[in-house]
Amino acid sequence: MPEYNRFWPRCRLLVTGGAGFVGSRVVEKLRQRQCGEIFVPRSKDYDLRIREHVEALFERTRPNIVIHLAATVGGIGGNQKNPARFFFDNAIMGIQLLDCASRFQIDKFVCIGTVCSYPKFTLVPFKEEHIWDGYPEETNAPYGLAKKMLLVQAHAYRQQYGLNAIYLIPTNLYGPGDNFDPEMSHVIPALIRKCVEARMLGDDRIVAWGSGNASREFLYVEDAAEGILLGSEFYNQPQPINLGSGKEITIRELASLIASGAGFEGTIHWDTSRPDGQPRRCLNTTRARQEFGFEAKTDLRDGLIETIDWYQRSIEARSPISAHGVSL
Asked: Does 4 participate in catalysis according to the annotation?
């Protein structure tokens, strides 16, 4: 593959969600690659759900590449409480951005999808061609389907307008700077918060959602950002591409790793009245490796330690913690 510094200095890049968990890493790596110009819209200035704001953003920035990372996201609890919001926000932002990208004749649109778009029951590891084989898991179906429709739109706009739109599907992400809010967090930050707070408060028991038997695959945020930029630079085909580690772990095993890393020596009670979500989740990552040489580099244990350490430092810098629980 050619050196990336021959590509990025010529680019004017619009990165939606560029101040967020993944987006901030993408922007940092773009700066390391000496990207020509990078525009990161803030929601207080541009509400991507409003057509006039999206048009004004394109008029002002005139990008030749868009990486669309802005999203309304959350764990199982967040999805259950906000299905309409998760559907509308994610669908309308992507629909309008793709349409404006076509009207302004940009060179490339990089759409970030979600593993939640895969059917609830899918052959493991998930291959990209299986994404249409069934309905997503119910707890996050509105979010998953909203994102999935952007793949349909990308194909349609490529066919009718010649828009070079690619679609990347990252698996569950984690890392320092993740969302640890008890109402909206995903499983890793939720378990980290519970274990760290229980240890600091002297509690000998935490409660986790579900049976612990469901499995997930996790990708460290720095690896995800690298995969997104490799795809942005080298991939130009309509077929979606998985970004993941290709390694599966049960939630019960994950909880044990986190408890050990956080120094929590108490017991974990599994609340089976709460949903497990999708039974299994693990991606086939062959296509990403073949098409643009992406392979995850961060071992899960190492990534968890980095994330736990970051969270402990962040709460030490704040006022004393509260004892309220954290949902998965």
From this structure: no
Domain spans of the chain, in order of start: 7-174+218-243
Termini Cα distance of the chain: 41
pLDDT digits (tens, 9 = 90+) for 31-46: 999 999 999 999 999 9
Rounded Cα distance between 38 and 17, Å, is 12
DSSP letter string, 38-77: EE---TTT--TTSHHHHHHHHHHH--SEEEE-------HH
Task: Give alpha helix (H) positions in the chain.
Answer: 23-32, 51-61, 76-81, 83-103, 141-161, 187-201, 221-234, 251-262, 286-292, 300-316
- Which of 118, 143, 174, 220 is labelled catalytic? 143
Nearest-Å Rg of the Cα atoms of the chain is 20
| CATH homologous superfamily for the domain 7-174+218-243 | NAD(P)-binding Rossmann-like Domain (3.40.50.720)
Distance between alpha carbon 74 and the CA centroid of its chain, in Å? 10
pLDDT digits (tens, 9 = 90+) for 275-323: 999 999 999 999 999 999 999 999 999 999 999 999 999 988 875 544 3
pTM of the model: 0.94
